[in-house]
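Exam revision sheet. Question 4 asks you to relate a sequence to its structure. Input first:
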Amino acid sequence: MRYSDLGHWSARAGEWATRYYATLKDRPVRSNSVPGEFAALIPSMPPELPEPMENIFADFERLVPDAMTHWQHPRFLAYFPANAAPASILAEHLANSMSCNCMLWQASPAASELEGRMIEWLRGAVGLPSHFTGLIHDTATTATICAVLTMRERTLRWAGNSQGLQGQNTIRIYASGENHSSIDKAVRIAGIGDRNLLKIPTNENLAMNPDKLRIAIGRDIDAGLQPAGVVICVGGTANGACDNVAEIIKVAKSFDLYCHVDAAWAGSAMICPEFRNIWKGVEGADSLVMNPHKWIGAQLDCSIQFLSDPGPQRKTLGLRPEYLETDTEFEVVDYSEMTIPLGRRFRALKLWFVLRAYGLEGLRTMMRNHVAWVRKVERMFRDDPEFEVISSSPLALFAFRFNPGNGDPDELTRRLCNLINDDGRIFLTRASCRGSTVIRVAAGTFECTEDDVMQAYLVTKELSATLGAAG
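Answer key, structure tokens:
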């Protein structure tokens, strides 16, 4: 295949995508493949000679879609959404066509400057003050790793970078048990270790207890340990838990600790002013992550990290050998100096397309609909005596369990979740909350409807009756 063939095959791919989305509702949401089934269809060695693109494309159509779980399916109600607006799909095609490494300003001036402008657009859209700047990462995990590394180096006065961690004071990071597992991963990668991530108890609302945080920090200082930072939860994965951001930041700052807010899912909803009470006080944070690929429509991967002051993160992660110098007399920002990879994709393009193609008001309407529909279906579960709503969120998420009164609710809930996902009409995921096994409902795909969300109750109710009849 040559570049001259791109027009034909891009058109074929576009036609396939159009058919795919037109028929997506007719597919089961989750693939019914078993492990190894798909790999068995692929030769164990690559071909020695070129194969016709016609054959390659035909194999894609024949093999791949049925072995995929369809994240853009309107009844994908599992995990958190990773929605992909049509405008984003188009932008990614263009970015992939140029295939630039956007590591430095001079390597891709438009990509670098568009990234800066998109940070400004989203900063204003979610109501952050003008002193925040930032960058686009791949996922929130990378943003959190960068924040935790910055916490470590800031408290060690950057001696960890120069001397290593051996002989340094033991670093302590604080978070609640409702935070995403990416925080655990970050402390491992940063060399801090699981035992030094202190999980602070939560209150009845699943929010970190600020008094317990203060006591824990004081106890560590008295023990000769080195508190470095606090990770604040806004929209926990299992249940939408939200810490009291203002109170936690107040405690942390009284000890001069760096504060990172994990709002990977919930942060996108802050384009709606009525939801911003969820993160009241966020302007006091040092670092904040939100994922437009979860709810705004800029498809995976696209994670924004806002920084109150980029200096500490740049000092932690930046390296500038001569071959990475930008040769210009003007002041420029090289975003690779604030993250782990040197190579960077042109992620700002899809944000630019999405924000222009749908406008903030269009995106707000979509999110408000998702929240309203989820609250409606949550009420249906609350009104049914066979189900218990275990956790609720002010956004488009809640969790329930099946408790008909004739068996172990945890076991029944696990069996019910398996039945739902094997059925294929909707896709839900399990979690643990308040000591119970629960099933999460989280809406957010770009073109889901009220009827799609209502299926969460209708399908669950139908299949729970089958489960009850089976004993």
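Marking note for examiners. Residues 348-382 form the longest helix (35 residues).
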